[in-house]
Amino acid sequence: LSSLADQAKEISVSGSLTPSYQLNDDISIDLEACIDYTSYNMTGFDNGTTFDFTPHLYWKSDAIDLKAGVYVDNDWHVAPDVDVTFHLHPSFDFYLQAEGGRVYNDFMRFAQMTPYWCLNATEAGFDDQFDQLRAQGGIRMQPIEGLYADLSAGYDISKDRAEIADFLMDRTTNPTYSPILFADGTNFYVNANVKYNYRNKVMADLKGRYNHWTTDFKPTAYAGAYTVNWDQILWRPQIELDCSIKVKPIEQLTIGADFLFESFQKKSNRYERPNTVDLGATISYTFPFRLTLYAKGDNLLNKKYDHYTMYRSPGINFLAGAAITF
Fold first, then answer.
1. What is the pLDDT of residues 86-101, one digit of tens each?
2. CA dihedral 128, 174, 241, 317 (to 10 degrees)
3. Could you count the other beta carbons within 10 Å of the beta carbon of residue 240?
4. pTM, rounded to two decimals
5. What burial class does residue 274 get, using C-beta atoms within 10 Å of its C-beta: 0-12 exposed, 13-18 middle, 19+ buried?
6. What is the mean pLDDT of residues 168-180?
7. Collapsing DSSP states into helix, strand and coil, what is residue 115?
8. Mean pLDDT score across all residues of the chain
9. Strand 117-119 relative to strand 178-198, pairing
10. Distance CA 148, CA 139 (A)
11. Quick check: 216 and 231 in contact, CB under 8 A?
12. Which is the most buried residue in 8, 164, 252, 323, by most CB within 10 A?
């Protein structure tokens, strides 16, 4: 990775401009224009400039908030950009969203997937991901003071989505890199987010998500060396559960705990990523002169799971420090 990054010397520059106009008290329009330039200093990687335009119409009323737009880029990719919220009750909203657009497949994105990435030799000159559709619908509600919930379901359709190619990995030994390949794919998901705040003394947050990832990539296209059907995404989590709680018995003292669980699909002859089970705890105290002392423990159950695919997280670990606010 360091060798590739040093040789390629990827440079990205982005800019955007959004002029807008208010037609009346309820209706406005704008035009969002973006431009991105990327350059490389390495054979096989092409410099390029991309730009896109998204005109919008906004309409706000007591019953409906509407954003209606269409995304168009220089490759004539077209996608919707629509967000509508129906205010059915002061404490109950129903919303629908449909959007899409370019997602840049750059070195920064690969490093977010795993710092230990590499590219297959056939992937030089790769295209950016284009999301043809990211659709979502759900409800937001606040049934009582302090309690908030957001329940939704959605479906994504993507072209040239970056994936970690786990079928290239040995199941018994960790590689020195994680190959990045590209494939068209979809994801259906169900999402829930519940928050509770009791007078800023007790704050709880629960997030849960179910994903069903698919891809149409066939690894037999790579030199015919791989006969496994890569129709399942095993490195992305299938079930995600993230919950946290903070308690402030006095204004200066905060005690917290957090728990993260992620489950991954299993398949024979493929690397089986262990489920993530991570319990953490924090405590902090802020003095009147804006000095905060804190301590944090992570992986308190000492579970073995991957921080990145095929790269294990540390066992039980602690961190303590101080921070001052000016």
1. 999 999 999 999 999 9
2. -120
3. 18
4. 0.86
5. middle
6. 62
7. coil
8. 87
9. parallel
10. 11
11. yes
12. 164
